[in-house]
Each structure stands twice: as structure tokens, then as C-alpha cells.
């Protein structure tokens, strides 16, 4: 029982210790810099104290201890201590009613007492701690429970500290304001006001920010005590904040900046009082902000920036917003933003972020938001003149909601038209540059909030269209935007800006999509264009209202009317048939070309004629009127494609957008002939060196292309060079007959003289010479201009090809028929191969590779009956050998992808993973086995296998081949199971010693990438087991070919890797049949040979680690560095210890044996030794012929006691190294005593002598090292002491 009670007491004591330690840890965590940790620690302290207090009426010792620690911590000078301890103290006072104000004041008086023997800094910390105790009393509302005497004591203490310590003025003022707000009217009047009345009666002349803050708080909380009579008597007015006191308030604000960058609370409180009186706001902002703070230095301007967001939160109308964001303030903000080195740049940037958040708020009305934006646009220093590139206005308008953006667009429209009568609230905006306003109006059309409002977008486009192409003749309200002409009239520059903005808005709307995850629906865009065409028709039908700048001819008007009629038909059909892609394509083309009639009439008329024929043919075909068709005419999609290509050559972004959009709609109707029209763009002229053909010789093509590329580079370098010598050489090389004739024509008679080599310069006057100079300069200038034009044409042709590539990318992304994809392979590969060789067209080549990547990796391949699968193997062979011309690995990878695409199309595979039941395919074709009857797909696949084997054979046997091994790696890795019969060929080349070593190595890599768990699972178990056995056997024999004189680490590593992949991909039953001890020995042998080659050694260890748990023999798979270190250490040990071990071994071997040959036990030997007498030791020389053991007793050398004494004494006094030395000496004596027995002693004399010499040399070396170490330590001590 006693034991149980003691265990319970110890458990309670331990639990108590844990809880107290938890409390201490949480108190210590209050001074950490992490706010979350401080909050968690405070919560934990309160929880722990609540469990301790447990509704007790008296303060428990834990609570008392915590209260003392928290109050003491308020005087700590650590950075985060006062924050953490004040937070915890407030929470403790709130949650424990048992703690009274008296307890807190007594504890503070005891802990924070100011003593005479402490420093001034500690005294300041104590006073600050006292003030923070009073602040905690007010924040915890415990001051409400204070007695009258305690309330007076707190008030007088704060006033005394406030008078004595200037740095604590603000803190004491805030504590007093807290006392004022927490107590009742009667207690304030009776106990607090008598103490504060003298300080609050100083008037405006002696008013400080602290005084005004306390007076405002007292007036607001206790208006009966601090009544209007008191204010009128001492402050001159019945209200502290009014229009007459703004000048005095300005002086108070200026004084409050002495604590910069701390913002005095009185500023925000005065601001709140000001906005309660709307008539005071303009006066206050003018006299305090504009005339006082903005005219001062940095601290005062910083206060202005801080007041702006608070003032906007208090503003209730647009007029107050315009007052707050005055032109002077906006000019200061823009000035701060324009210079990153300005002190207030960060403050201004933060203010801009606050303005953006304010404008995007849902609690603010649209009129106020627009007022903020227009105030920032005020001239002359608004957002228009912002040079900081902060995108202030664009960020603001992008944050506006739909209603505010609509209001703002109306304001901007009136500004462009010059209609300022209806916008009297924003007169400064009348001076904004109209060109800038037009640009911002165009930018608003792609706002996210206005993306779905087609009516608003049409309104803006109608305004831009009207002012771009028409002039209002007679104002009328029947036509939108024609109710009033622009005042002043629009200039040509503004009309050009509107025209440019009109087409930019159209192109943006065509591609603008709020939902990035889905394709854009062009229904709303087509509706907007329809409304725009209808508006244009209205303007053309009313020439008395608006007249076009360019007159429409009869033919143009006739085509326009026809366009309108066709559009109405297409629209009616589109409403009936929702999925009519070709109809929408024609609709979009007609809309665009109809608008193009206002800019390019001649070019558009020809295109419209062809478009009409395409439209009739397309819709006639839809009605199945085949009898009336002319089969000799091209298909309508072919004509449309040709039209799109002609439009794509124009230098217009809108045209390119329309072409891409229309082409995307026509992709389901694309044919091979139409696609060939696009591919013909990439075909060079017959005079130029075209891209390489599949059928040409590889070596000749490569050399020609390299020479061509190098020639282009040299030509580019010569053109870009500025030296005179290079220009002379270039001109000498490029002089042709045409240039010669032009020079002769320019020289006239002078050319004849030059040809006849007659020097008659004296007959020419200076004027004639100057004429010749001007003529020659004109000739060569025209020559250089022609070169520049030719270069520009090349650049334009490259850009046109890149646009055509965009069309092909659109086609590929629309999942077309496989026949179209296969039709693209060859031309794109040729383009990529030729473009990547030249630096000037490298971007074109990279883009082509991107299109190829998208083309060769389709998600699904729908069935296509237009493909002749019997032609695919030949195409596969062409692509395979085309890789020899590829100049980069990305292109090689795309060739491999193209080959695999052919295989997918040939076998009808939907995905790129290959057929899952591969065991139904041709598994393994033996040489002597006849070809079985298979279907056409399997026959084609067999041809693919043969082509691939032949290519690998060419790669291994022909030295002049340019085939890239990376091509085979890509193909075999992606479709290993499908191409499994190739493994036989690979294995044959691995074991063929006549093949080049590099090729054998790469063939091993090909074999390794084909072996995986997926490919093994696709095979039948019996077939894989047979192949694995054959493979492991052949690889084992290949490893046996290498020895120490013939080490090839790289191929050995690949062979080991193939073995490892084979074993890890097989089942455990198969692994048991593959693993043998001979294999382990062979791998260990390889490891010894390649020990210095890290990669091969690591591969050996990896394979041995796998084999170690599957064979019974020991396998060494340790770390080589550790083993080498252990081996060296073992050699060092054997160098000094082996004689003793050898002697011990000899003694063990000399044990007495019984008659039957077994050795005697330890006890029997001891008994036998004692019977033989002291100083003798038996030794066995052998077993006699009669079976008895011959024992020879020889005297032993006894150890002297002095030696043992010296040894023990050295162990006590010397260091560790000296102990090792003495021990080594003793060991040598022991060895000598053991070696002095009989014949063993005679044989060990020489070895003992050598051992003694080595021991002495080792001891000397160790002693020298100890001496050096001690000397270095003494030197370090001297240096440290001197420092």
C-alpha cells in the first residue's frame, strides 16, 4: 500500500510539473516575433489558468504568478515583449473577474517600482510599463469596476507621466481617452474632469494634438460636462470643428507630424467630425490639406496621402470626391509615382492600390466611382500625364463594374464630341486630349465587366464607325450619334485615330474570351457586326443626314446591297439550323468584306465576286443539286482557301484574325486539294535551292544545305559589317552587267574615258565632277535600296509562312481526318529541316516543329476510308531515312513521332499506347519459320518490322550512314510491345564483335528501352521466359569476352542495365531460372575491372544488390569508398598487429590433444599446466605415429611487476595518445614473452626485431604530431589572449 501511495504522489507531482512547465513555455512564447504564436500562447495561458482557478473566490497561485510575470513583462525592452504581454494581460483581466483593479495596481507598484540604483533606461522602461498597465485596464474594461479613489489615482498618474516624459505623451493621451470613454457621465464629472479641466482650457493658441484629442473625446462622450458654454468660453466657438477653426486645426495637424511616420489619432477623429458637416469639407480640405500640408515638406505630404483613403470612405457625394482628389493633390501623387527614388513613392503606390480597391468595392455607387476616375483625369497633372508607367487609369477602369463603366463611357463620348454642357460636374475634363480619350474609350470595349453587353459594344463601334467614314450633314435624333455634330470638328488626325481604334476594337472582340477553358463562341461577335452593317445601311440610305468621305460608285453600291441581301438570307438560315459552320463562315466573311468596302473598294470587289460564286456553289451542293454542278470547277472550299490566303498576305491584324476564325469554321470541310494550296506556300521557286527531298542522296544533300547555310551566314555578316574594306569586297563580288550599264549611263562621256583608260580629268570641270558624283551616288543608293527591299520581302515571306503555319495548327487542333494529317507530314518535315539550318529562319523552323508535335500526337484517330494502308510501309521507310537529314534532336523526335503516327493509322489504333492484346500479333518470327497467314494489318506490321531491322542493320554495318540512334530509341521506347520482333536483330548485333563498339553500345540501349513491365505483360509468359533465358545467356557470354586488358566500361554498363531491366521486369519464378552463381561471379568480376569508372560501378552494385537476396553465395554490394578505407585500415593494422596474432594462432594450434586427435578443453589445459609446474607451457609439435601427443615444456619469460606498475601509472597520468604508446610497449613485451616459447621464439626473432623498429618509428611519428598539436594549441591561446 505504501508503495502504491508513493507512486501516486510521484505521478501527481510529475503531472503538476508538466502543467507548470507548460505555463512557463507559453509565457516565454509571448515575446516571439510570430503573431500567431503569441495568440496561441495567450489562448493556452487562459485555458490553463481557468482549469487552475476552477471558480475559486480567491486568486490561485498560478494566476497570481502569471499576473506578476505579465505586468513585469510590460517593462521589457525586447522587441515583441510588450505586444505579447499586453495582449495576454488584457485577456487575463477579461476572463478572471476575481482579479480587481486594486490587485493590478498593487502588483504594478511592487513589480514596476522605480528604484534609485537602476539606470535611466530601466527607469524609462518602468514608466512605460506603468502606462501600459493603465492601457490594459482600459482595454479590458476593468477600469469601469475601479473605485473612485483608484480612478483618481489612475488619472493623476497618467497626467503626471504625461507632463514629465515627452516621449510618452501620445501613449498617456490614448490611455486617458480610454478612461474617458469607459466611465459614466457622473463619475467623469465628479472624479476625472477636475483633473483634466486645466489641461483642456488652454485654447487654440496653446493647443497641441494630444489636448485636442482629449477634448474631442470628452466632448463626444460627455457633452453635458464639456458643454458649449465651456467651449465658447475657452475655445471661442460652440463647436470645435467648423469652418472658422480650420486654420487652427491646420496648425495642430502640422504639429502632429513631429512623430513622423506615426499618424496621430487626432487627425482621423477631426476628419470624422469634418465630414459630419458637408459645408465644412471644402473649407477644411482647402485650408488644411491644399494650403497647409501640401505646401510643406515630406512628413506633411505623407499625412495627406494617409488622409485620402479615409476621406473617401467618409465621402457621400461626387462633389466631395472631387474636393478630396483636388488637382494639386493629384499632381503630387503623379509626381511621387514618376520617380522611384522619391521618399514617398511607396506611399503613393500604396494609395493607388487603395484607390483601385475603393473603385472595385460594391458598397460605392457608380457615380462616386466615376467621380474618382474623372478626378484623377483632371488636367494639367492627371493620369494622362502620368510618366510612371503605373497603368493607373487602365487599372482603375478595369476595376469598374458594368454600371460605372457605362457612365464613364458616356462621359468620354461627350468629351470626344465636345459636349460639355451635360457634364458640368466635371469641367476640368474638357481640356483632356481628345486623341487620348478615344484610345481609352477603345480600351474599355474589352473590359471583363462589359464583355457580355453587346448593345454597349455596338454603341461604341457605331460612334467610331460614324466619325471614321462619315460626316454629319444635318443633325437628327432618328439616327444614333447624329443628334449633334462634334464641336470643334474632328481633325484628320483624330479621324485616323478613330479609324485605327475601330479596327483594333473589332480584332480584340473577335479574340476576346472571358472563359479561357472553352473555345470562343462568335455568336455575339457576329451579332455586333450585323448591327454595325445595319447602321451603315441606315447611314447610306440617309445621305441628307450623313455623307461618306469616300463616294460609293454604282458597282460598289450594288455589291454592298448584294452583301446585305446575302447576310439576311444566311441569318435566317442560321436561326433554323444551329450547327451550320460553313454558313457562319460565309456570314463572317461577308460582314468583314462589307466593312472593307469603306476602306479598300477595288480589292474588295474582286474578292466579293469570287465569294458570291463560292456561296452559291456551297449552298447548291447542300440542296443536293448535283446534276447542275460543273465537275471541272474547283470545290467551293478550295476557292475559299485561296481567298483566305490572299487575305492573309495583307498587313492587317484584323484580317488575320478573321481569316483564322473563318478557317476554324471551315476545318470540317477541308479537302486534300484545299490543304495542298496552303502547303504550296512553303514550296520554294525552281531557281532556288529548295528543301531537301526524301529521294535525294543523303550525303550530297547535307553538304549542299550546309554550304548554303554557311553562304547565307557569310552574306549576312557582310551586309551587317560597316568597314570599308568589306563593303568594297562585297560590291566587287556583286557587280553585274545591269549595275555596270547604270554606272555607264550615269557617267556618260566619263564612262568612255574610263573604258579607254585615258586620264582626261583635266577636261572635266568641278560642276561636271559633282554631277558625276551625284549620279553615281544615286545609282548605288538605288542598289542598296533594292537590297533592303529584297530583304524586307524575305522577312514578309517568312511572316506569311508563319501565318500559314497558324492555319495548319488550327486545322490540326480541330481533329481532322487521318488522311489530312498524313498529307501534312512530308511538307512540314521538309520545311522544318530547311528552316532550322538558317539563322534567319530558325524561328520559322521552331514553329514548324511545334506544329509537327501537335500533329503527331492526336488524342484520337477516327476511321478514314481514304487511306491506302498498303502505301504506308513505304512512307514509313521514307520518314525513317529522312531522319539522316535532321539537324537537331527535336526534329529527330518529331520524325519518330511521325513514324509512330503512321503505325497508328495503319493498325487503326485510337491512342498512342499501342494494342493491348499484343499476343494476338506476330510475336517472334524465326528465321526458318514460314510466314503464317495473317490479315492485311499484320502484313503491313511485318513490313514495318523488316524496314526497321534493315535500318538498324545499316546503322550498325555502314560507316557512312547518317541515321541517328536517337530515332530508334524514340520509336522502340514508345511502341516496344508492337515492335518486339526487332529484339532478335538487336541481340544479334550486341553479340557481334565485328560491329563497331559505339553501335553495339547504342543497340544495347535500344534493347534496354524495349524491356519493361508493360511490354512483358503484353507478351505471353512462355514466350517471355524463353526470350529472357536466351537474352541472359547471350549477354553473359558477351561479358565473358572482356578481361582486364580489354575493358570497355560503357558497353559493359549497358549490358548490365539490360540484365537489370530483364530481371526486374520478370516474375519471381522466371528470375529464379535466370539467376545463377556464375552470373554473380561474372558481375563481380566486371566490378573489379571497372572499379574506377563510377557509372559502371554503380550499375554493378545495383545489379548485385538485386542478386544478393536470390543466391546462396555471399555477394559484396557495399560502398566502394568505405570498403577501400576499411581495406587500407586493415592493411595498416596487419602491418603492426599480425605478429602477435600469428603468435597467438601458433599457441592455439599448439594446444594439447587427446589420443583421438581432439584438442583439450580450456580447463584441462589449465589443470595440465598447473600440474606441470610454474613457468612452463605445453606446446604441441604434432601427433606421434602411435597416437600420443608429444609435449615439450619450455620456460616462459615472466613479466616483472615494475613493468605493470609503470604501465598503470602511465594510464593515470598521460593523455590518450600517450596511453596508446605505453600500451604498445606493453604489447611488445607480451608478444616477446609469447614468442619466446620453443621453436616459435626462434622463428620470430627476426620479425620481432622488425616489429620493434616499426613500433619505435610509429611512436616517434605520433609524438611529433602531438608536439605539433600542442604547439598549435598554445599559439591559438596566445592569439586569443592577445585579442
Automatic annotation (TrEMBL):
GO cellular component: nucleolus
Sequence ranges of Polar residues compositional bias: 1178-1208, 1229-1240
Principal location: nucleus
Protein's cellular compartments: Nucleus
Bias (Basic residues): 1210-1222, 1274-1283
InterPro entries from the UniProt entry: ARM-type_fold, DNA_pol_V/MYBBP1A
Superkingdom of the organism of origin: Eukaryota
Biased composition (Basic and acidic residues): 1118-1133
Biased composition (Acidic residues): 686-707, 715-737
GO MF term set: RNA binding; sequence-specific DNA binding; transcription corepressor activity
Stretches for region Disordered: 686-740, 1118-1283
Keywords in alphabetical order: Nucleus
Family to which this protein belongs: Belongs to the MYBBP1A family.
Protein name: Myb-binding protein 1A
UniProt organism field: Ridgeia piscesae
